[in-house]
Amino acid sequence: MLITILAVVFVFGLLIMVHEAGHLVAAKRVGITVYEFSMGFGPKLFSFNRNNTLYSLRLFPLGGYVRMAGGEEGEENLEGAYQNKTTGERAQVAAAGPLMNLVLAAVLFILVFSVIGIPTITNSNLIGETLPDWPAAKAGLMPGDRILSIDHQAVANWEELVSVIQTHQAVSDPITLEVEREGQYLQFQITPEINQQRVMIGIRPQINYERVGLLTGIKLGFTQTVQLTWAMLQGLGQMVTEGVEPGDLAGPVGIYQMIGEAAQGGIAYLLYFAGILSINLAILNLLPIPALDGSKLVFLFFEKVRGRGVEPEKEGLINLIGFALLMALVLILTYQDVMRIFTQKG
User: Fold this and answer.
1) Catalytically annotated residue among 20, 73, 159, 182
2) Cβ atoms within 10 A of the Cβ of 255, count?
3) Does residue 255 share a domain with residue 286?
4) Both 266 and 324 in a single domain?
5) Based on the domain organization, do 188 and 288 belong to the same domain?
6) By the 8 A CB rule, do 101 and 15 touch?
7) 3 in helix, strand or coil?
8) pTM for this entry
C-alpha cells in the first residue's frame, strides 16, 4: 500500500510539475507576470521567491497551478497581464503544458531504454518473483526456485509451466509442484486462484534488463512517443465514431490501481507507464473541453478569426459548465472503478 501511494504521488507529481512548468516558462518568455508556481493545493509547506515569482509546495500533492497577472479583477490593464498579450503568445502558453508532457514521455522512454534497460522476460522455469498474499507466496515458494514439474508433468520453460497451470480445471483442487532450491528437491501443494478469468498462483518470471546505446535510446524514445500518441489518437477517434463501453474507461481509482501494479513490476515498468500517462495527459488537455488547455486554444482561434475575444462572463460560464461535467464524469468513473475492484474480489 505504501509503495503504491508513493508511486502515485511520484508519477502524478512529476506529470503535473512538468505540465505546469511548460506554462510557466512559456508565460515568462512572452512577458506575462507570474505571481506563483505551485505544486499541490491547500496549506503551504515550503516556498521561496525568485525573479518575483513565488515557488511553493503545498500539502495536497496531486495538482498544481501557475497564477498569472490578469486573473484578478482590476489587473486587466497591467503590462504583464495575460489578456494584454497577442493571441499567438497566449496560444503558446496554453499549448506549452501538453507539449511538455509529450517531451517528458520521450525523456522517460529514453531513460528506460538507455539507462535502466528494456525489461525482457526470460523463458526459463525459474521464479523471478512471488506476489505477496498470493497462493505461491503463502505456500512458501521463493524467487530463484526452479519449477521442474506441475502435477507430475515436466516443464522446461516459462511458457510450458504457465500453460499447465492455466489448463488446471478444478480450481478448488491443489496443484502439485516439484521445485529445485539450492540443490534440494521440494514439493508444494498450492490451490490456485482465478484472476480476470485466468488460473494463477501468483508468480512472475525472471526479467533481464537490456540497455541500448544513448543514440539508439533517443531514437527509440521519440519513435515510441510518436507511435503511442498516434495510437491513442486513433483510439480516441474510434471512441467518437463507434462509441465506448463504460468499462473501457478508467477513473482516478483505476489509475491508482494501475500505477500500483506498475510499481510492483519495478522502476522500468513504473517509468514506462508514467510515460504513457504523460501522453494521455497531453492529449486530454488538448481536447476542446471547457476548463482544459484545448478549450483555451479554441477560444483564441475564434478571437483571432473574429478580431475580438469572447466576453469574459460567457467564457467563464462555459468553463464552469465544462468543469462541472468533467467532475461528474470523474465521479462516474470513480464509482465504476470501485465497483470493478469489488466485483473482481468477489
Assistant:
1) 20
2) 18
3) yes
4) yes
5) no
6) yes
7) helix
8) 0.74
